Amino acid sequence: MSLLLLLTACLLICLGQIAQKYAVESWRGTESSTVAKLRSPWLWLALCALGSGLLVWLLVLQRLEVGVAYPMLSLNFVLITLIARFVFHEPIDRQHWLGIALVIGGVMLLGQQT
Fold first, then answer.
1. Rounded to an integer, what distance in angstroms lies between the CA atom of residue 31 and that of residue 86?
2. Which residue, 44, 53, 55, 106, could crosslink 12 as a Cys pair with Cβ 3.0–4.6 Å?
3. Do 93 and 99 meet the contact criterion of CB atoms below 8 Å apart?
4. Are 114 and 64 within 8 A, CB to CB?
5. For residue range 73-102, what is the model confidence (pLDDT) as tens digits?
6. Which residues contact 68 (CB under 8 A, 6 or more apart)?
7. How far is it, in rounded angstroms, from Cα 42 to Cα 36?
């Protein structure tokens, strides 16, 4: 159950980050007012996802030690990198991929403790 909650927190936080990116991309090239920006559905999705992620994260912290749980959030680096590459078509260099591989290895090692 703890790992499922941790994965849910990761996914909600990633969704929030992606929605933030879409929100600012929708503002690019337009001179919209602050009120118009606040009407962005992407912004509200980001706020809801990040808020929900925080609430799930609090449940995670009730069940796992912070020294184990927090480093597991580094899975977000992996997910966001994959989304940046395949959804936003951002270039990712070899050094970045190596870092992602190291993060995955570290998460696998930590996952053995839970």
1. 29
2. 53
3. no
4. yes
5. 888 999 999 999 999 899 999 999 999 999
6. 110, 113, 114
7. 12
- 30-76: pLDDT as tens digits: 777 778 788 889 999 999 999 999 999 999 999 988 888 888 888 89
Q: Tokens in use for 19?
A: 């929605």
- The rounded Cα 30 to chain-centroid distance in angstroms is 27
Q: What is the DSSP letter of 39?
A: T
DSSP string, 68-112: HHHHHTTHHHHHHHHHHHHTS-----HHHHHHHHHHHHHHHHHHT
**Dist CA 98 CA 10 (whole Å):** 21
